[in-house]
Amino acid sequence: MLPTWLTEEYLQPRLRDYYKDDQLKVLKIWDKQATEKGQNYVGLMTRIHVDYQQGDGVVQNRTYIVKQALSENVPQAQIFIEYDVYNREMDMYEFVLPKMKELLQEAGLDGKITADAITVDREYSTMILEDLAQSNFVNADRVKQLDLAHTKLTLELLAKFHASSVVLKQRHPNLLTKSLFTHFFARDKKGYTEVFNGIFRAFMRFINEHPELKRTYGGKLEKFSGLIMEYGARIFDVNEDELQTLIHGDCWTTNIMFQYDDAGTPRSAIAIDFQFSNYTSPAVDLHYFFTVSLREEVQDLEPALVDKYYSDLKASLEQLAYAGAIPSLQEFRLQFERRRFLSLLAHLFKPLIIYNGSEVTSDFSSVYKETEEGLRFQKSIYDSEAVIRSATRLLAILDDKGFLDLQ
């Protein structure tokens, strides 16, 4: 159902401004829910249909995405408010992303890294965005995960995004608002402590139900109980000699959309959802993306993928005329490796991300709370051969590299 304030009179001046058509007239608005129950925990998304007449008399029908903050009485909304995710995303769409697009275009790079914002309305905590589906962008299958072609396109996108943010900070530092310097594990905030401790306990119940995993890794993993948030904070800490960029912050399959050619081959990628963007090491995006979004055979190519990302990043920084030191490949590999523990933290969400069962919940707290519904949902998402294989592979890597030993 459309918000009562979203009327023809409200939308018309905003579309006139976006399309630069002072004679544009909105004729009709109607809505269709843009996401199914259980698919979006952070906000409300609605696809609206709009009939409008252009100044030249041509009548168009277009769709747009209306993205609203959750009502404050929704339980998880308080966590998102504490971490300023709604203002952060509005800042991204209103100030940061348009300037990044402009920088890329000026450098002769494709500037399309996300949907355009038709309007950002802070009074209603709402954004009206371009509907990328109208340009034939679609999501890949989150359960099947991404093959090599999709992965390479996403890395090229991340390289442009990260590179343009470095130049943005250099030339327009005032655009990076306070909210862009906080993250899930921020030491001055507490909301996500319950979330991560809860999903870590769910992970430990899973480990303890599988004798081989329990025998091999159970004791080491138990030592991290109560320390998850500090280990997460260390990952986001950046040394002076390390490259810092704006990161997407939630880079996984559903937050990347692809265009395809007639043969079904992916040709371009674009990012959506910037509630968790922040300024830190770009390796954070890579570890999260690699852990939760790639097929096993693509994960096995990790060293080559890191090298490809670095090559794309370096080329983009050079084309953007970045006036600063670019780390060497070896330095970047070390920067990536220092944050490998993030792959364990990201994996805590992987059972939910690739879940394809019948249990559905619209309450984010079911992911981490030990209520009857929560425990049932957590058991259901972990009941998967894919999760067992993934956890076994990941823990072997982390153990071999010494990341399961307390530092």
Structure in words:
The protein has 407 residues and is an alpha+beta fold. The protein has two domains: 1-69, Dihydrodipicolinate Reductase, domain 2 (2-Layer Sandwich), CATH 3.30.360; 72-114 and 136-400, Alpha-Beta Complex (Aminoglycoside 3'-phosphotransferase, Chain: A, domain 2). Helix content is 45%, strand content 15%. The chain is built from 15 helices and ten strands. Strand 2 (43-53) and strand 3 form a beta hairpin. The model has no long low-confidence stretch (mean pLDDT 94).
Write the layout of secondary structure elements.
Elements (H helix, E strand, L loop, with lengths): L7 H12 L5 E9 L9 E11 L5 E11 L7 H6 L2 H22 L10 E5 L4 E5 L7 E2 L8 H24 L19 H18 L2 H12 L5 H9 L8 E3 L8 E5 L5 E6 L6 E3 L2 H11 L2 H4 L2 H18 L9 H10 L3 H6 L2 H4 L18 H11 L2 H16 L7
Helix pairs in contact: 3-4, 4-10, 8-11, 10-11
N-C termini distance: 52 Å
CATH class of the largest domain: Alpha Beta
Proportion of residues in helical segments: 40-55%
Structural shape: globular
Stretches where pLDDT falls below 50 for ≥5 residues?
none
Question: What is the succession of H and E elements?
Answer: HEEEHHEEEHHHHEEEEHHHHHHHH
According to CATH, the fold-level topology of the largest domain is Aminoglycoside 3'-phosphotransferase, Chain: A, domain 2
Number of self-contained structural domains? 2
How much is the average pLDDT? 94
What is the CATH architecture term of the largest domain? Answer: Alpha-Beta Complex
Main sheet? 5 strands, antiparallel
Helix and strand content put the structural class at: alpha+beta
Radius of gyration, whole Å: 22 Å
Number of helices: 15
Which percent band covers the strand fraction? Answer: 5-15%
Question: How many strand segments?
Answer: 10
- Strand arrangement within the widest β-sheet reads 1-2-3-5-4
